[in-house]
Design brief:
This protein is α+β, with helices and mostly antiparallel strands and 300 residues long. The protein has a single domain, classed as Porin (Beta Barrel), CATH 2.40.160. The chain is 17% helix and 43% strand. It is built from 4 helices and 14 strands. The protein has a 12-stranded antiparallel beta barrel. Strands 1-6 form a two-stranded antiparallel sheet. It is globular, with a radius of gyration of 26 Å. The N terminus is likely disordered.
């Protein structure tokens, strides 16, 4: 009886490595299967803006994103203007997610007393896993109305104070830290200041994000305009800054040569020159309110 018991114990011990290997193989197969499933890639940027540019991100379904954007004057105004802090341009806006892929927004800027409205539709979603989609593609469209009136009848006509923007945003979250996007853009102006300017202005923007830590990222963007489209003195928009995430808020602190905070402004009306110190210090504040049923259930 004793020898039989020892024999059974020997068999049990001898079979344990193979059983453990089989279990490990099974777990490995489950992990491999899960890793090959296509999953949407999220958080390419911390908010729906790079700085001025629209980013790859959308406001989630049934979420309301309140945005406050502020630009001080140029830093080269000197000590008398407290290096631009005495001057201010502001935009108040809101964005609402109809679905996770479609959002709408509107805003009002103190610069030229402009009203703007827009949509952004994510037509292709980047996914991870075997056979995943490597890029996200979004379509963006906006309309703006300059309510500030001048003294000429031609410029005061309603249609002549309208501007439209169309944009394709193509980008990718290349790694956990780095995201990059390109934005071919057209801005249509119903009326231009001079006959030498084009009503349709074409450009291509580039924007990127580098994640410094879990809550902080470095952002940059640049808009290149094709030659001979805008008035002399108009420069390409360039902005750099940091995003800081704190719970439901995202604070964006940045430097930019653009005064306006909507597409028709920072694309076709930027006059600041970085080399001359025509740089605004500014910030964007984003605060998201969740009205989804899931959030209501948690509250109850």
């Amino acid at each position: 009886m004793k020898y039989r018991l020892l024999f059974y114990c020997f068999i049990l011990v001898a079979s344990m490595p193979s059983a453990l290997r089989a279990q490990e193989d099974l777990l490995s197969m489950i992990r491999d299967s899960a890793s090959t499933e296509k999953q949407p890639v999220k958080s390419s940027f911390k908010t729906t803006r790079v700085v001025n540019f629209q980013s790859l991100e959308n406001t989630h379904a049934r979420n309301l994103d309140i945005k406050i954007s502020h630009r001080f004057g140029f830093l080269n105004l000197g000590i008398e203007e407290l290096f631009g802090l005495d001057a201010a341009t502001i935009r108040l806006g809101a964005e609402y997610g109809i679905t996770d892929r479609l959002m709408v927004g509107f805003g009002r800027s103190s610069f030229e007393k402009t009203l703007d409205t827009y949509f952004k539709w994510k037509t292709i979603q980047q996914t991870s896993g075997k056979g995943g989609m490597p890029v996200t593609v979004s379509l963006f469209g906006s309309a703006a109305l300059r309510t500030f009136r001048v003294n000429t009848d031609l410029e005061d006509k309603l249609l002549n104070r309208m501007y439209y923007t169309g944009q394709v945003i193509v980008g990718s979250k290349i790694s956990e830290e780095f995201s990059l996007q390109l934005s071919p853009t057209i801005v249509h102006r119903n009326l231009t200041a001079t006959t030498s300017e084009k009503n349709d202005v074409f450009g291509i923007g580039a924007g990127g994000r580098f994640k410094v830590s879990k809550r902080i990222s470095l952002n940059a963007e640049y808009m290149y305009l094709l030659p001979d489209q805008v008035a002399p003195g108009i420069t390409n928009s360039l902005s750099i800054g940091f995003d800081i995430e704190t719970g439901g808020h995202v604070f964006q602190l940045h430097l930019t040569n653009s005064t306006a905070m909507i597409e028709k402004g920072f694309i076709t009306e930027t006059t600041g020159d970085w080399g001359d110190g025509d740089i605004h210090f500014g910030f964007n504040i984003s605060r998201v309110f969740d009205f989804s049923r899931k959030n209501k259930t948690k509250a109850e």
